[in-house]
From TrEMBL:
It comes from Actinotignum urinale. Its EC number is 1.4.1.16. Keywords: Amino-acid biosynthesis, Diaminopimelate biosynthesis, Lysine biosynthesis, NADP, Nucleotide-binding, Oxidoreductase. SUPFAM superfamilies: Glyceraldehyde-3-phosphate dehydrogenase-like, C-terminal domain, NAD(P)-binding Rossmann-fold domains. Residues 121-274 form the Meso-diaminopimelate D-dehydrogenase C-terminal domain. It comes from the Bacteria. The keyword Oxidoreductase applies. Pathway: Amino-acid biosynthesis; L-lysine biosynthesis via DAP pathway; DL-2,6-diaminopimelate from (S)-tetrahydrodipicolinate: step 1/1. This is Meso-diaminopimelate D-dehydrogenase. GO terms for biological process: diaminopimelate biosynthetic process; lysine biosynthetic process via diaminopimelate. NADP(+) binds at residues 11-14, 35-37, 68-71, 91-93.
Length: 325
């Protein structure tokens, strides 16, 4: 297969993670980075920076666009627009709104004979696959997902979109006592609040209303309103010194039985030095699959549930059978 020509739309943490992943992919080339900002203000590792306003001129130069905008306010607008003209992948992670996003993107992609994979990444994404494989292979079971301790890019992005916030990050902290109960085999019924806590560190703009910012965060639907959330206002210097790393990870734990008294535990653990670099690597594999599947006639919206695993890997099916089966 010829080299896959990729464009990145949105150059933030995730955009830089995708850029690194493409640099390691022998079957791919990064041909452009699209941005809403003045292209002169954005510096990449070499790829040309193009205003998003000029994206249509690239329709015959790009095989797939990776949308790296924020889920809170960007992707539900950008992915349907891009899907009309390009194959596209995004990491949309507002779980409650995934069905609505899927329908919007599907209409746009079908109209353009393109293929769009939404909600790539690790959760939703890789963890979603683990949850569905476990449910299929162990139907009489309960599944528990724990994230962290680490930095959620989705929640950090949501915090940064609030008026008066200059810089912000959000750390997700699993309730370790709950995690240990599950790892010990207890089929506990846990509320959202009993599984995780959320801790925010932010730098407020001069003169910003901190009480208003805190209230907007702790009451934010789909992100914070169901959790115990702590909001810390800190200085620029402390933020730059303490809060620039983006480690994360988590566990998918499934407890089930195949007959009375015959119990099984499926436990998958993920430890990430860099959330954006790992997520970028997953999205690049998704981009590979989308190009291959569209070339075979697939159109509309899909998720990772719809992707045959062999489409994600650069090797041929015969090589995979010989080396990975
Ligand atoms: N499904 C999953 O497992 C995961 C999903 N994600 C998703 O990835 C999304 C993006 O996260 P992340 O990359 O950390 O967010 P960022 O805030 O770093 O970037 C989001 C967008 O903001 C713009 N931007 C970036 N830097 C600046 C700046 N200095 N000034 C102005 N605008 C800027 C960019 O768009 P532009 O270039 O157009 O200005 C960019 O696409 C998250 O919202 C989350 O939903 C992340 C990790 C895992
Ligand atoms: N989508 C998440 C990836 C994982 C992490 C997470 C959380 O900490 O709440 N939920 O899902 C992210 O943006 O980092």
């Amino acid at each position: 297969m010829s080299t896959i020509k990729v464009a990145i739309n949105g150059y933030g943490n995730l955009g830089r993670g995708v850029e690194k992943a493409i640099a390691h992919a022998k079957d791919m080339e990064l041909v452009a980075v699209f941005t809403r900002r003045d292209p002169e203000s954005v510096t990449t590792q070499g790829a040309p920076v193009v205003s998003l306003d000029d994206v249509d001129a690239w329709a015959d130069k790009v095989d797939v666009v990776v949308n790296c905008g924020g889920s809170a306010t960007d992707l539900h607008v950008q992915t349907p627009i891009i899907a009309k003209k390009f194959n596209v992948v995004d990491s949309f992670d507002t779980h409650a709104k995934i069905p609505e996003h899927f329908e919007e993107v599907n209409k746009a992609a079908e109209g353009g004979s393109n293929l769009a994979l939404i909600s790539g990444g690790w959760d939703p994404g890789f963890f979603s696959l683990l949850r569905v494989y476990g449910a299929a292979f162990l139907p009489e079971s309960d599944v528990y997902t724990f994230w962290g301790p680490g930095l959620s890019q989705g929640h950090s992005d949501a915090v940064r979109r609030i008026e008066g916030v200059k810089k912000g990050v959000q750390y997700t902290i699993p309730v370790e006592e709950a995690r240990q109960r599950i790892l010990g085999g207890e089929h506990a019924e846990l509320t959202v609040r009993e599984k995780h806590e959320r801790v925010v560190y932010l730098v407020a703009e001069d003169g910003a209303d901190k009480d208003k910012i805190r209230d907007e965060i702790v009451n934010m639907p789909n992100y914070f309103d169901e959790y115990n959330t702590t909001v810390n206002f800190i200085s620029d210097a402390e933020f730059d010194a303490e809060h620039t790393g983006m480690p994360h990870g988590g566990d998918v734990i499934r407890l089930g039985k195949t007959s009375e008294g015959v119990q099984h535990v499926i436990h998958f653990n993920l430890k990430l030095d860099s959330n954006p670099e790992f997520t970028g690597s997953v999205l690049v594999a998704c981009a590979r699959a989308v190009v291959r599947m569209n070339a075979e006639g697939a159109q509309g919206a899909i998720t990772l549930f719809d992707v045959p695993p062999a489409k994600l890997h650069p090797a041929t099916p015969a090589e995979l059978r010989a080396h990975m089966l």
